[in-house]
Amino acid sequence: MYVHATCVALKHGRTWRALLLRGPSGAGKSDVALRLLEAGGRLVADDQTHLAKVGRALIATPPPSLAGLIEVRGLGIVKLGRGQLMARAPLCLLVDLVRPDQVERMPDPAREKVLGIDLPKVALAPFEASIVTKLRLALGRTAAA
Q1: Pairing relation of β-strands 89-97 and 57-61?
Q2: What CA–CA distances, in Å, run from 74 to 78, 102, 111, 124?
């Protein structure tokens, strides 16, 4: 299944865990991905992500035509180096990028099924300075659950 979303993997302990950044065009998916890359993350896919159920996990991969590429607003399409990429990663968190006034202060835990796999979901404002830290904290919560 292909989804309109950007996927980035972050190292958590000894393993890499992916989060899926969702939102309409211009919502900040690639911008957040760039900040996560700067913080040591690895790009799985930008703009389009392929999801496949493998056992009890969802594995994210890039479409072949977009592998290694990211759109950088103001620069165009940029090819990333091998050290900034990950060919596949287990999806552990859904992230909906929303306007700041749509972010709940104290939300109840949210979940969503994708291809029959139940995943945690958060809604965050993409252009806040704290987005990278918030995403690391949210991903850490998924490991504890």
Answers
A1: antiparallel
A2: 11, 27, 35, 24
CB under 8 Å to 62, separation ≥6 — which residues?
Answer: 7, 44, 45, 46, 48, 49, 50, 68, 87
Bridge-partner residues for 57, per DSSP? 54
Let me know how many helices (H) and strands (E) the chain has, helices first: 2, 10
pLDDT tens column, 47-103: 999 999 999 999 999 999 999 999 998 899 999 998 899 999 999 999 999 999 999
What pairing do the DSSP bridges indicate for beta strands 42-45 and 89-97? unpaired
